UniProtKB/TrEMBL annotation:
SUPFAM superfamilies: Xylose isomerase-like. Residues 9-199 form the Xylose isomerase-like TIM barrel domain. It comes from Rynchops niger (Black skimmer). Keywords: Isomerase. Gene3D superfamilies: Divalent-metal-dependent TIM barrel enzymes. GO terms for molecular function: hydroxypyruvate isomerase activity. This is HYI isomerase. One of its GO terms (biological process) is glyoxylate metabolic process.
Length: 216
């Protein structure tokens, strides 16, 4: 969308379907060029001056229509489409897709297996908490995980609400084998900020990259 005009994705914005399809086509070209098999299909914001409840049904209908179009196109490219709930309490008050429950209900209505949930634990904690149950409940839908400590949105070992060693072990026990995106703002240097990962590997008797010494 047009970021200068305050847009943050278009997939659920009524009247912007043509622009969504054009942007999706460009995104597919970029993804193909760099070998990225997943594309985040951003829902977008409730239009300014509009009551969220008054436009909820129309925005959901638009979202479903655009997601079906995207799923068909992405299936031809052997790609996955992702939808991410973003909290509207702190980060983006006007963003349309806010909870994993809302996202799961929409994905069920769309009905395409190559559309998945991009679960950012920062947003999920702010909106709902209950992370263990949410991870277990929505695990079959999850196509990507993102992390950040709450409330500061820094490294997972920074002070905050979330016990990330527990969460990582839970993901392992569930059989998650995808990437975990570091969707946080480093407090200082990026590489120094990855010290939490080295510490976690050491605590789990793993080498860099997650290879078990015992397995070797």
């Amino acid at each position: 969308g047009n970021q200068e005009a305050g847009e943050m994705g278009l997939a659920a914005v009524p009247g912007r379907q043509a622009a969504f399809r054009q942007d999706l086509s460009a995104a597919v070209q970029y993804a193909r060029a760099v070998g990225c098999p997943r594309i985040h299909l951003m829902a977008g914001r409730v239009p300014l001056g509009t009551d969220r409840a008054a436009v909820a049904d129309e925005m959901e209908t638009t979202f479903i229509e655009n997601l079906r179009y995207a799923a068909d196109l992405l299936a031809q490219e052997d790609m996955i489409g992702l939808v991410e709930p973003i909290n509207n309490r702190i980060t983006d008050p006007r963003y349309f897709l806010n909870t994993p429950h809302q996202a799961a209900a929409i994905l069920e209505k769309v009905g395409w297996p190559n559309l998945k949930l991009q679960l950012d634990l920062f947003h999920c904690q702010i909106m709902d908490g209950n992370l263990s149950r949410n991870l277990e409940t929505y695990f079959p839908l999850i196509g990507h995980i993102q992390i950040a400590q709450v409330p500061g949105r820094h490294e997972p070992d920074s002070p905050g609400e979330l016990n990330f060693p527990y969460i990582f072990e839970l993901l392992e026990s569930l059989g998650y084998s995808g990437y975990v995106g570091c969707e946080y703002a480093p407090k200082e240097d990026t590489l120094e900020g990855l010290g939490w990962l080295r510490s976690y590997w050491e605590s789990r008797s793993l080498r860099h990259g997650g290879t078990s010494k015992a397995a070797e």
